[in-house]
Each structure stands twice: as structure tokens, then as C-alpha cells.
Write a structure and sequence with these properties.
CATH architecture of the largest domain: 2-Layer Sandwich
Strand order of the largest sheet: 2-3-1-4-5
Largest sheet: 5 strands, antiparallel
Order of helices and strands: HEHEHEHEEHH
Number of helices: 6
Shape: elongated
Radius of gyration: 27 Å
Structural class: alpha+beta
Number of domains: 2
CATH topology of the largest domain: Alpha-Beta Plaits
Length: 173
């Protein structure tokens, strides 16, 4: 890799730190080619991706961006998983894959200008998807109107029930 390629790679990594919703770093040592291909496919279905990175180049990108707190992550083979849309999706996929394949070890991450530790990544992986959260929000916003409509409809319904009972009583007499 010559200087131009290294500079281009550092620029690409720096851009990922700007554009990605979440970056998660993992040790992929011991993964088979078929396993990493399977992981790539799962990530691409979720609109995410994974890239093997050189630790020196990532450290240089971190220095260029003045990002601190991640240097301890970059030792040994490192893969950078990223998501440009749903930060929870990449965390879920990596955590699930790490459970299936013990060779993959999540090291840490970066999201919203802050480093992520492993516990935070596990917490992020337990969050429901964006669509589920939006549907829950809409349901909670819709609940007062639905309840009010139910209460307002209960009064005429009760009146009709009482009138029907009176009609049946008079018909039986």
C-alpha cells in the first residue's frame, strides 16, 4: 500500500466517522471465510456493512478527527462494522453473530460523537427496531383520542341498551 492509498484509506475511515450512525469494532481472528461472508450478507440486508481496517490508519483518522477514547480498541485484527441508517441494527447483528460464532469478539464502538463500551453496545442491541419504536409512539399518541371516542360512544350505547330493555319488558307484559 503506497502513500496515496494510505491517505485515501484514512480519508475513507474519517468519512465513516462523520457519516455513519454507528461504528462497531470487532476482532475477527479465527473467523472462516464462509462465516465472514455470512456476516457481510446479514449486514448488507440491514443496510450496513463491514470492512477490515488497519489499526494504524484508524488511529491516524481518529487523530485527524480529534476523537479520543478509542485507541485501546485497536490492537490485533480489527473489523469496522457501520450503519448509515439504523444504529441498533448493526449492533444487533454483530451481537447475535458473536453468540453464534465465538471467534468474533466485539471490542467497542463509536456513535453520536462518543465512544461506546461493550455494555452500551449490548444495550443498543436489545433496543427494538426503529419501526417498532415509531409504531409504539404513534399508538401512545393515538390512545387518548381512541379512549375519548370510546367513552363518548358508551353513553348512546348505554341509552340504547336501556331503551331496548324497557321495550322487551313492555312486550312481555
Amino acid at each position: 500500500m503506497d502513500r496515496k492509498e494510505k491517505a485515501r484509506s484514512v480519508d475513507d475511515i474519517s468519512k465513516k466517522f462523520e457519516t455513519a450512525k454507528a461504528l462497531i469494532f470487532a476482532d475477527y481472528k479465527g473467523l472462516k471465510v464462509s462465516e465472514i461472508t455470512n456476516l457481510r450478507m446479514k449486514l448488507s440486508k440491514a443496510g450496513s456493512g463491514i470492512k477490515v481496517v488497519k489499526n494504524r490508519l484508524v488511529k491516524k483518522a481518529l487523530k485527524n478527527k480529534s476523537i479520543e477514547g478509542l485507541d485501546h480498541i485497536f490492537s490485533g485484527p480489527t473489523a469496522m462494522a457501520y450503519s448509515d441508517s439504523d444504529p441498533a441494527a448493526v449492533a444487533k447483528i454483530l451481537i447475535e453473530f458473536a453468540k453464534e460464532c465465538e471467534a468474533l469478539k466485539v471490542k467497542g464502538g463509536y456513535m453520536n460523537g462518543r465512544p461506546l463500551d461493550i455494555n452500551t453496545i449490548h444495550l443498543l442491541a436489545t433496543l427494538p427496531s426503529k419501526e417498532v419504536l415509531l409504531s409504539r409512539l404513534l399508538a401512545s399518541m393515538n390512545a387518548p383520542a381512541t379512549n375519548l371516542a370510546g367513552v363518548l360512544l358508551a353513553v348512546p350505547r348505554a341509552l340504547v341498551t336501556v331503551l331496548n330493555a324497557i321495550k322487551e319488558k313492555k312486550a312481555s307484559q
